[in-house]
Each structure stands twice: as C-alpha cells, then as structure tokens.
Design a protein that fits this description.
The chain is of the alpha+beta class. The chain has helices at residues 6-13, 17-26, 41-45; strands spanning 30-33, 36-39. The chain starts with 5 loop residues before the first helix and ends in an 8-residue tail after the last helix.
Length: 53
C-alpha cells in the first residue's frame, strides 16, 4: 500500500497543513497529546499509520 504524508496530502487537497490537521481532529481521526500527534482507533480503521521521524 502506498502511503502519503500529511504535507503531501494537504498540497494535493489544496489546503494548508493546519487546515488538514484541524479537519482530521474534527473527524476524530487524530488527537494531540503532550506536543505529539496520535492516531485514534478510528484513524487506524481508515488506514492511518504513524511513521517514526
């Protein structure tokens, strides 16, 4: 399966990274804890993955 970064996805959708993250939070796909982004179970179900830096 091909993966795409949030930066690339925001460019493909024509929105800023902030807008994309705000939307992902609103859809309950991700959340922020202790200055880090985390996937929710729903985010995982939709195929989201975390790639370590």
């Amino acid at each position: 399966m091909k993966t795409i970064s949030t930066t690339a996805l925001s460019k493909e959708l024509g929105v800023s990274s902030k807008e994309l993250f705000d939307t992902l939070v609103e859809l309950k796909l991700i959340y922020r804890k202790e200055e880090k982004w985390h996937l929710t179970e729903k985010g995982k179900e939709y195929g989201g993955i975390v790639v370590p830096n």
